[in-house]
Amino acid sequence: MNSIIYQNLGMAETHKNYIDGLWQDAATGATFKDINPARNADVIGNFPESGVEDVDDAVRAARHAFKKWSRRPAPERGDILRRIGDLLTERKSELAFQMTREMGKPFFETKGDVQEAIDTAYYAGTETRRLFGRTVPSEMPNKFNMSLRRPIGVCGVITAWNFPVAVPTWKMFPALACGNTIVFKPSEMAPHSGALLVQIMADAGVPPGVLNLVQGSANAGRALVEHPDVNLVSFTGSTVTGSKIGETCGRMHKRLSLEMGGKNPMIVLADADLDLVIDGLVWGAFGTTGQRCTATSRLIVHEDVHDELVENLRQRAVALKLGYGNDDDTEMGPVINQAAMDKIQSYMDIAKDEGAEILTGGKPASGEGLDDGFFFEPTILTGVTPEMRVAKEEIFGPVLSVLSISSYEEAVQVANNIEFGLSSSLYTSDVTTAFKAMHDIEAGITYINGPTIGAEAHMPFGGVKGTGNGHREGGWEVFDFYSETKTVYVDYSGQLQKAQIDNVDD
Prior knowledge:
Blueprint: E1 13-14, E2 17-19, E3 22-24, E4 31-35, E5 43-48, H1 52-71, H2 74-90, H3 92-103, H4 107-127, E6 134-137, E7 143-151, E8 154-158, H5 166-177, E9 181-185, H6 191-203, E10 211-213, H7 218-226, E11 232-236, H8 239-252, E12 255-259, E13 264-268, H9 274-286, E14 296-302, H10 306-319, H11 338-354, E15 357-360, E16 379-382, E17 399-405, H12 408-415, E18 420-421, E19 425-427, H13 431-440, E20 447-448, E21 464-465, H14 477-481, E22 483-491, H15 500-503
Parallel strand pairs: 1-5, 8-9, 8-11, 9-10, 11-12, 13-14, 13-19, 14-17, 16-17, 19-20
Antiparallel strand pairs: 2-3, 4-5, 6-7, 7-22, 15-16, 18-21
Helix pairs in contact: 1-7, 2-4, 2-6, 3-4, 3-6, 4-5, 9-10
């Protein structure tokens, strides 16, 4: 058995960075503690608090490995990615258990997280046989024009804690498929999951130096972004941090992909199937305890069905079973830490000050199995208006703001009235309205008759406005981000041809 995955609960093991194929301590020996957010007495382990020296070692290893890895035939790189998928499948339940222990969402959700990584591994492995260039006619005789794809170099990958396996694989698997090497810094709130993923990738045959893991907090992330030998940065996290990273990468001419915040609307019109809506709302608003960038955080509902829908939703929300995610009957887990609890509670005060009503929830949850964790009740805010902070700012918790509207046009105006544009949703039985919404809603993703969550590995993922900077993760577009287009001309005419100068008569 793999000792990293099959560790005994309660043992505060000391974990290491993974650099150039070796597990090693941070240069200073400093560590930080990782605890179970549902059972605070359960210490998962101590992890390296890495700094500039550790990042420099990891980047140096990645730079050294790049030449050989980038020249390896792409389908051979795909074989390794498929082996990663096989190992993820084999270790799925064990990995999901440890992910739930570390970051809190129920076991059935973390199994889905791992499955998304499995799907991404097989998809990226297949795409290594489809890294297409183009051939096009030349405007000159006896000349051949084509383009091909080339890897970029060392990729700095910085990820959030809420999808600690799926999201890193969205970034790392396409990067490896394209021939790049990686320095990976997972969130300091999910370091163990990151280490488990790296161990699996190493076991599958990713060569030393091609994949490097550096644990730590913002200092390690900053050192990675600012390192002159890191060619590309892919970041998932807050809009504030992403903006700072964007400034650095712009100044240093690094390629950058940002996936940041969301305040995602579900529009419910009067002709919607309300039973279907309720199921979608419970899953979209309270799945992952509302801690998704794609969470359904705004319900924009037609006034004709507002009261019925909200009351039915209230009944479902108060019935949700809160607890430790590895217990069989748990439907909603904790928030990630005390800082998250404090932030959510502060928004309850803001909501009341602005005139919204806390219909249900609005406070930390207590009771059997809940008092040693960071649990917050599923919360519904009513009487919310578009200019309230709870209607515009990302709370990142199990909080749904309800806004009443009288028409489709008003709903779209309210939905678009924010700085974010990640995901969105419309429930209606009218196909014409559905197709209008696909164009009218300002978001990178729109679901029709489904909640705002549920991305698939083979589809592009990302947003507009304050959510992203134009790139997409997942699907076919991500391979363009992790590769450069190189244009090639082959002139076999045997003489100098001066393109447009020779090709056009005055």
